Amino acid sequence: MALITIQPGQALERILSLEIVRVTERAAVSAARLRGRGNEKAADQAAVDAMRRELNKLPIDGTVVIGEGERDEAPMLFIGETVGNKKGPKVDIAVDPLEGTTLCAKNMPGAIATMAMAEGGTLLNAPDVYMEKIAIGPGYPKAVVDLDAPAEENIRSLAKAKDVTPGAITALILDRPRHADLIAAVRKAGASVRLITDGDVAGVIHTATPDQTGIDIYIGIGGAPEGVLAAAALRCIGGQMQCRLVLDTEERRVRAGKMGIHDPRKKYAIEDMVKGDCLFSATGVTNGDMLRGVKFGKEIIETETVVMRSVTGTVRWIRAEHRQLDKFHLD
Ligand code: VTB
User: Fold this and answer.
1) CA–CA separation, 204 vs 45, rounded Å?
2) Which one of 98, 103, 197, 200 would you pick to mutate in the ligand 1 pocket, going by the greatest count of ligand atoms within 8 A of its CB?
3) Residue 328 confidence class, pLDDT cut points 50, 70, 90
4) Is residue 199 lining ligand 1, measured as CB closer than 6 Å?
5) d(Cα 84, Cα 195) in Å, to the nearest integer?
6) Is the shortest distance between the CB of 226 and ligand 1 below 6 Å?
7) Residue having the nearest C-alpha atom to atom 17 of ligand 1
8) Has residue 304 got a pLDDT over 60?
9) Considering only Cβ atoms within 10 Å of each terminal Cβ, which end of the chain, N or C, has fewer?
10) Could you report the per-residue pLDDT of 14-61, keeping only the tens digit for each?
């Protein structure tokens, strides 16, 4: 039972930024129980169930716009599903209850539970297709890199803007055969490539703090849902991102058309994907560079979450200790 109510029309409430922490915490704990069991589906389902249960306790009138799939293929948290107790503001919800299902199933670093919330009608409704992405952190002049420029050119102009040689630039790229040419081009420009097997939401976020992560730029093709979630995070902490949906078949263009996307080649900036104020939260499932994974103790479960709010740009790192473990899944 939610004890708080938020009046419709009120701005995305500060209080919700704590509420969404609970949502990703619960999803992370449920998925983490299935770490290393080799069962991606079961881990994902556990995260979905927990996230949906928690979302439905929130004082919001929410609609899932980025979810587990389109209505006919996903029984829960599908695109268009309404969530929340309806006693609150109209909001758009983007979820990836378990980002990095394979990472979780194999107990490898970097699996997270993540979601974003924005004012109703302000998040891009995107089908679950691929998306071309390029992202850099804050503090650069506008348009220093461009999705449509050759990789060598982007590396060179980023290095120039950072006042370093291309050799001092590190690009993060998903390790996929489709990126072979891109990886070669980035290396040819003199930059270093860090490859990841999964997890490009965190990958994009890494570009915002290059001094800590060593990552200056994210480039490549990943999932569209992950792209919108990453855009929500960058909307809070700054940075530049350009994306384009890969709508390379008639079937995909029709699916996108049903979601209101009529220009299949549109290049999206952060403000096109996240048009209003938003909140972003991610909790570690397995240990990663960004977040520690869930730690199960005898009497305490520990979680680590990062939660961001675009109105103020505040970023909070929340280490939580959960007690009353018998009730943890029920209340
Ligand atoms: C990426 C990656 C995600 O999907 O977005 C990827 O960052 C794209 O799809 O963690 P492919 O695996 O088909 O390349 C994920 O791996 C999530 O499934």
Assistant:
1) 25
2) 200
3) low
4) yes
5) 38
6) yes
7) 100
8) yes
9) N
10) 789 899 999 999 999 999 999 999 999 999 999 999 999 999 999 999
Are residues 224 and 128 in contact, defined by beta-carbon separation less than 8 angstroms?
yes
First to last CA, the chain: 8
Mutate to test the pocket of ligand 1, among 66, 132, 226, 245 (most ligand atoms within 8 A of CB): 226
Q: What CA dihedral angle connects 239, 287, 96 and 315, to 10 degrees?
A: -40
Domains of the chain: 8-121+277-330 (3.30.540.10), 130-273 (3.40.190.90)
Global pTM? 0.95
Q: How many CB atoms lie within 10 A of CB 65?
A: 25
Whether residue 127 has its Cβ less than 6 Å from ligand 1: no
Backbone angles phi, psi at 85, to 5 degrees: -90, 10
Does 100 contact ligand 1 (Cβ within 6 A)? Answer: yes
Comparing CA positions, the residue from 140, 220, 138 lying closest to residue 172 is 220
Residue indicated by tokens 């004890």 = 3
